[in-house]
Amino acid sequence: FESGDGTEVAPYVIRNASQLMYLATTALEGNTYEGKVISFAADIDMSGYTWAPIPLFKGTILGNNFTISNLLIENNKSITADSSNYYHVGFIGCNSGTISYLNFSNVNVTVTYGAVRAGAIVGDNNGTIKHCEVSGVVKVDTALTGDIMVGGIVGFSGSESSITACTMSGT
Q1: Assuming Cys at both sites, which of 68, 71, 112, 137 could form a disulfide with 141, CB separation 3.0 to 4.6 Å?
Q2: What pTM, to 2 d.p., does this model score?
């Protein structure tokens, strides 16, 4: 991160693609960021990167109306299924935290494998998402069968979740 200690007073600050990739890497290593605050300080272009979804997020993301653009997310056999054999695909696989004022432009999510919950921001939402905008494509291989839940913003939203003032344009 650029700075911060993850508190409300001094959140972790993300200003570029390498810092965003650091967030993903540490999350893939098991950090859920529970009780931590992450604040975006610039628009971030993810051209040239393939995003591996943050498996589980329990913290707070303050997007500050910045935009992540050109995010490419592909589910394949490298993404691990949960205990129910679902593949959670999105910027965040499973969310139990809060994501606010974070925008996504020209996002491209491609689902080609397994029983899946997929959306541009979150695959499986059990938290709060508010004031986020998404433009782009979330597509599913038409040969897939079984339990497939796909949406522009989230693939599945649990009964305790909240999605407020969010928009999606695209397919």
Answers
A1: 112
A2: 0.93
